[in-house]
Amino acid sequence: MSKESEVQHKVLVPGRWVERVEEVFHIVLGVCLLGIAIVALFFSVVRAFETVPFFPTGMIQAINDILFIIIILEILRTVVARYTDGVFQLQNFLIIGVIAAVRHILTVGASMTLASGKSQVEFDRAVIELGISSGIVVALVFAIFLSRASNSFPAKGLKS
Q1: pLDDT by residue (tens digit) across 128-151?
Q2: How many whole angstroms separate alpha carbon 115 and alpha carbon 123?
Q3: How would you class 62 by CB atoms within 10 Å of its CB: exposed for 0-12, middle for 13-18, buried for 19 or more?
Q4: Which of the pair, 64 or 55, is modelled with greater confidence?
């Protein structure tokens, strides 16, 4: 018996089966994410028009909801890219992180603007959150820059 046949006999689950199951999971996850985005959009529109007063509370809530839906769609894009390319793409995750951090900045900033009776401790905490979130955005944007710059350089020492 050759070494190749010994290795083939030790494999419990054929690779093709695993790939097919993985494909089915990616399709199901993609459909679920799309459904969640559609439902979130519906409830966001309803909530935007039911929020009183619409300006500024309803508008801030609508922007927050829209950014949440964009995050869901970016995750969907990442799942689709994983299904089609076979790899998770770093830049998609970094973009999701930037959107989430910006969403948090907008939420904290809006709460600081709308809440007039904040104590000094709450105000200081909100300012610290804004600073940390801003640093996260800068770091993630820099990581996107580095990722794109590294993709534009040819790999040295790798020849086909």
Answers
A1: 999 999 999 999 999 999 999 988
A2: 10
A3: middle
A4: 64
* Cβ atoms 26, 83 nearer than 8 A: yes
User: Cβ contacts of residue 30 below 8 Å, gap of 6+?
Assistant: 76, 79, 80, 83
CB 102 within 8 A of CB 130: no
Distance CA(51)–CA(127), nearest Å, equals 27
Grouping H, G, I as helix, E, B as strand and the rest as coil, residue 70 is helix
The pTM (predicted TM-score) of the whole model is 0.78
- Region of 159 on the Ramachandran plot (φ > 0 left; ψ -120 to 50 alpha; else beta): beta
81-113 confidence digits (pLDDT tens): 887 777 778 888 999 999 999 999 998 988 888
Give Cα separations from 140 to 85, 87, 89, 126, 152 (angstroms). 23, 20, 14, 21, 19
How close are the terminal C-alpha atoms of the chain, in Å?
32
Phi/psi for 53 (5° steps) reads -80, 150
Give one DSSP letter per residue of 127-153, joined into a string. HHHHHHHHHHHHHHHHHHHHHHHHHHS
Of 147, 64, 143, nearest to 108 by C-alpha is: 64
